[in-house]
Amino acid sequence: MNIVCLDLEGVLVPEIWIAFSEATGIPEFKRTTRDEPDYNKLMKWRINLLREHGLGLKEIQDTIATIDPLPGALEFMDRLREMTQVVILSDTFTEFAKPLMRKLGWPTIFCNSLVVSDDGFITDFTMRIENSKLSTVRALQSIGFETIAAGDSYNDLDMILNSKAGFLFRSTEKIKADYPQFPAFETYDELLNGIKGKM
């Protein structure tokens, strides 16, 4: 039995931190997992930057409320879920994801959580499990699923490399050049057909 594992940001919705960078006018927030392979390092840097600018969870959630799924993402998810089981594996946080899941028709998402102080500042984060995307893919395989994975960033590569089939979707030129063995798609129709061909 197949299960498709998808990244969230950059694949189904815009990058939250890029939207937040544009909303605040602070260009440093544009740095994402497309640029920094070490997620822990990236998040600690973001938390320090938020504190430096006096920004908390509410300001990020206000930005997220304005974000819609990428054009065609909801239709893609509907078509994909008619074919097979789908789970979103994301390094985002439950405190960010809920309004986006509502707009995508409440798909299953496995993500992480934030530690927030009483005054609303993000002080830390808790990963659901170490190497969460790879660990989840392996756990799904251990209970009889064959995984097919798609993502756009460095933190998606482990789940793509360790699945029966994997795809890059709207990724960077560098990642595509470094991993030429994976089909790289730009449209949802291409991705849907690629997945269908591996089922």
Mean pLDDT metric: 93
For the record, the CATH architecture of the largest domain stands as 3-Layer(aba) Sandwich
β-strand amount: 15-25%
Separation, N- and C-terminal Cα atoms = 9 Å
CATH class category label of the largest domain? Alpha Beta
Number of DSSP helical runs: 9
Described by strand count, sense and barrel closure, the largest sheet is: 7 strands, mixed
Helix percent reads 40-55%
Describe the structure.
This protein is an alpha/beta fold. The protein has two domains: 2-13 and 69-197, HAD superfamily/HAD-like (Rossmann fold); 17-64, Alpha-Beta Complex (thrh gene product, domain 2). 42% of the residues lie in helices and 20% in strands. The chain is built from nine helices and seven strands. The protein has a seven-stranded mixed β-sheet, with helices on both faces. The radius of gyration is 16 Å and the shape is globular. The model has no long low-confidence stretch (mean pLDDT 93).
